[in-house]
Amino acid sequence: MIGIKMRAALAGCMVLVPLGAWAQTATDSFDVRITITEECQVISTETLDFGNAGVLTGNVDATASLQVACTSSTPYDIGLGAGEGAGATTTTRQMSSASLDTISYQLFRDSGRTANWGDTVGTDTQAGTGTGAAQSFTIYGRVIPQTTPAPGSYSDNVTVTVTY
After folding, report:
1. How many domains, the chain?
2. Average confidence (pLDDT) over 93-109
3. Which residue range forms the structural domain that includes residue 67?
C-alpha cells in the first residue's frame, strides 16, 4: 500500500499536470515603419557683432556661425538675404540706427572675404550635402571704410534661407 505522504505527493502532481496541459499561447507580429523625407532646418544662428569702432577708415572684420541640418544625402544651398536696411543689396548691406543713419557692410563665404554670400542659388550661396547631423558654417563680415555716421548703435536683420 501507498503511504499517506506518498498519496499526498501524487495527488499534488496530478493536479498540476492538467493545468500545464491547458496553458496555451498565441502569437502574431506587426510592422514598424517610418518614411524619411528630404528636409533641412536652420539649427542655430549667431549674432555677427562688429564690436565698437570709431572713425571707419579701415576694414572692421567679424565672424559668426550658423548651423544647418539636412537629411543624409540631401543637396542644399544656404542663402543670406539683403537685410532690412534701406537701399541694401546682397553685395552691400546696410545697418541703421534709430536716427536712420546707415553703415555699409558685406558678408562673405570665405575667410579671405572675396566670395560674396548672397541668396541666388548657384551664384552666391553656400552649397552643401546633408549628413543627417548639424553642419556648421562661418559667416565672414566686413564693415568697409566709409564716411563715419553719428555715434550710436547700428543693426540689421538678415534672413537665412536653405533651399533643398
Report:
1. 1
2. 96
3. 50-163
